[in-house]
Amino acid sequence: MEVFRRKNDLKAFLADKKNIGFVPTMGALHEGHLSLIKRCASENEICVVSVFVNPTQFNDKNDLKNYPRTEEADLALLRANGCDAAFLPSVEEMYPEEDTRVFDFGEIGNVMEGPRRPGHFNGVSQVVSRLFDIVAPQKAYFGEKDFQQIAIIRSMVKQLNYDIEIVSCPIVREQSGLAKSSRNTLLTDGEKEKAVLISKTLFESVNFAKSKSVADVKQWVVDTINAEPILDVEYFEIVDGYTLQSIENWSDADYVVGCITVYCGVRPVRLIDNITYKKQE
Ligand code: PAF
Questions:
Q1: Residue list, ligand 1 pocket, CB within 6 Å
Q2: Over the stretch 115-141, which tens digit does the pLDDT of each residue have?
Q3: CATH homologous superfamily of 182-273
Q4: Could you tell me the distance, in angstroms and rounded to a whole number, from the CA of residue 24 to the centre of ligand 1?
């Protein structure tokens, strides 16, 4: 595996490569990332992984400061899981000048994470488009845990006319059901145990959905999770999986997903997860 910190060095390495797959990450790698990296390595001649904690997507400076950074462990995991080129740029390397671009994602940007994390998706799109320009991959891999992020990336790819296939990969969970996340390392063991209630409730709600209305399922999920004192649901929306707009009836969409964000513990740690109720191919 080659390690690059300069974009021009990475570009020179990739110049004669034909079939490039790319996994952008912010490091603190876990099984969720590794599933993307393994898939990318198996489907492409060259697998490129970036590790960059992107300041422009953090609307909360404390969140940026506390974000886990584990470079040595990340490099070891990348070496062991099929990465051919690791890209670890500095902030100055990625943003020699301020990125002032403002994206408009329309209705998919105005719901759920959009209004609650102002500027977040704009920052994600700024960095991912910069990384796409450097790596020029044919395929890029993203995890479905960040469900709205994938829709935003697809919109950005369309707006900027990239010829890149966005591959979405299933959520990887701990044995307990908790969705794997770099933020899980910020939870105490006790908090982690309680956080399992989030996925447990989402799984149970699939059964509940067979006989109850959308409104009833929403209420039940929120009440069940909030009954645990250290958990606090920020939102739970049941949406059309393509437009991300809330639905009122199960028949309103062919693809129905429940998206949740929960604060856990005293710090608190913001956890996200989602569940598919219906998908007609
Ligand atoms: O999902 C993430 O880890 C980040 O948002 C991404 C896509 C690497 C951009 O910084």
A1: 24-26, 54, 57, 124, 127-128, 146, 149
A2: 999 999 999 999 999 999 999 999 999
A3: Pantoate-beta-alanine ligase, C-terminal domain (3.30.1300.10)
A4: 6
HEC secondary structure over 42-68: HHCCEEEEEECCCHHHCCCHHHHHHCC
User: Which residue, by CA, sits nearest to atom 9 of ligand 1?
Assistant: 124
Whole-number mean pLDDT of the chain?
Answer: 97
Q: For 141, phi and psi rounded to 5 degrees?
A: -115, 130
Q: Which residues are catalytic?
A: 33
Q: Under CATH, which number does the domain 2-169 receive?
A: 3.40.50.620
Residues of the chain with CATH 3.40.50.620: 2-169
- 126: CB partners within 8 A, 6+ apart: 54, 56, 57, 99, 101, 103
Task: Enter the pTM of the model.
Answer: 0.96
CATH 3.30.1300.10 range(s) for the chain read: 182-273
